[in-house]
């Protein structure tokens, strides 16, 4: 019995693994393990019986957590946009824009994957949507099967890291950090990853052009009456939008000063990017609307199509992320605006039916219930594990790793990478992250950077054969038998599971490269965050002491001139007793002031 009580925490953790290996759902395994070991621990005297009395209060705290409301809001937003045909329209339009280039369809998949990630936030929805829509088209025009499978799966996993990612919301809640800061921290690494995908496609187009052919002329449907593609007007519109964005970014402090009615000298990079791109997109949309309704004839069919298909979801993304980054709305309020905006967009496109709304609400309810049950189970387990000093055991286990911060980060990323073969990212966030966060904080690791790094690692595990969830999602929609293409009427070969696995490996290495880059350059994450204001407390104290001393230069209540608790003032040489208090003219300048006010004034004079 002594061995069990001494090693109760590791035995409890091993018990959780046994529960999971038995095949029970994770939420119920967590709850059952927590309650079972809670009863055993009380019987053995490991902790008092009052531990379980804290459980109702913890569960009420979960239901009162406003941050978690962002999960169903963003899920509903993404499902409505995806099921209203937005993904199909985007892939069709962007594919027509980049189609004449080698690798153009692959570029379209990457860009649309990034857009879907910023709207759906769910990996399964992105992979399945692009697999159903773009996979047959890319196979039809001769794209390599392995590369096609890999680029679709990898682009779908961007929903893991591009804001408003659901995993970043959960990560922020578990790490005790702001969701807005987590989004800001993920902004630069996410788009660097998109850039790496683009560079890989460009390299293939140069060195292996046969694997990424251009779209044939007969497949380009948005042509002008004279036979041209309509690219000059699209390019001109893009240049105008870009110039407006650059102008806004350059003068962003002045815009903020005007908006806030106070002087602003600097603006965070993420705020500049979102607001500037929003302004440029608005200008492009206004030009397209004027051209359509007034009949100016300035834009080609392709330019109009791109503007009306691409700009509305972009504006919705900017609305959601921009209000969060600017501090106008909380992530929960931003998600609510996004869901409402998606409903309005689907209604304006004539695609918002009762059946679509019921499907979206049902799927959102299922996902929300899934998250809530896992969180309840993790809370039960975590309460008992903490009572058994489990965090101290984990801290001693991980803090003794060689290599300090780097050794800890390498071990943790390998651990999360392998655990993600078997556990969903929600489950990892609720089970593993609360155990790792205190150790990371004690080692001096920024928790925002730590959370974004773990999210990138979880994304990597989506692509690892043979366990990657994204590969399973693609396998479920890829043709596994020969089929007849509906356009060319040719018999097409199926996509094998091995082709999907081989196609995922290059993108897996790209993602691992980004994990290494983030570890080597933490400023990629922390550089986007608002600077923390720091004060020199020693200087503040000195200034307060000076403020409490008499103006006349005589001794007052300073550190050197004050009286001790049992000291009496010295008598003058003439034997007359000195006054008990200073004369009015020698009174301290701040004697009538509130001490708190004096401290506030001193703090205001300190520069951050």
Automatic annotation (TrEMBL):
Identify the stretch(es) annotated as Disordered.
544-608
List GO molecular-function terms, semicolon-separated: transmembrane transporter activity
Q: Report the main location listed first in the record.
A: membrane
Question: Key word Transmembrane helix present in the record?
Answer: yes
Renumbered to this chain, the Low complexity biased-composition regions fall at: 572-590
Q: Name one Pfam family in it.
A: DctM
Q: Decide whether keyword Cell membrane is in the record.
A: yes
Sorted alphabetically, the Gene Ontology cellular component annotations on this record are:
plasma membrane
Functional description taken from the UniProt entry: Part of the tripartite ATP-independent periplasmic (TRAP) transport system.
**What protein does this entry describe?**
Tripartite ATP-independent transporter DctM subunit
